[in-house]
Amino acid sequence: MQERPPGTECLWAPWRMEFIRDVSRQEAAKECFLCRAATTGDPGANLVVKRASLAMVLLNRYPYNNGHLLIAPLRHVAQLEELSHEEMDQIQALLLQSKKLLDCLMAPQGYNVGLNLGRASGAGLEAHLHVHIVPRWVGDANFMTTVGSAKVLPQSLEELWRLLSEAWAQENLPCLPEK
Ligand SMILES: [Zn+2]
Prior knowledge:
179 residues; alpha+beta; HIT family, subunit A; 5-stranded antiparallel sheet; 5 strands; globular; disordered N terminus; binds zinc ion
């Protein structure tokens, strides 16, 4: 059996437990973290990078990789068919802007972009659809397997939130996403 580096398992355990507890708590309270993010007066506490008229971009509190963003409609809808054309357009525009911003700030070598629809897909929150955009670097998966989550957050979420929010709001950033 291949030996794991010390601490590998311990790095993931608290992380996932917190997520499971969070989801259970939300289900019990019929609370939705995306609805909370959609209406909050405190974008920082909810890691909201950009809130537009119909959709928003926020950092995933439980990222698969550094810079993992979620793009979601403001409305609590589960199915693609429930989105209006305008919502779909705005989600698409925000996805493109997010990708450009991540290109600019983090220079990833690739992305995983996608939707998990329905419980069987592994969606953590199936009732409020959201698009994942996960920056990737060559070798990051191997590195994750080797050293657990140690590399997942070279920056704190708060620090990354500040960086992304400020960059989005700046007018003269050389690689500013189109507004
Ligand atoms: Zn919701």
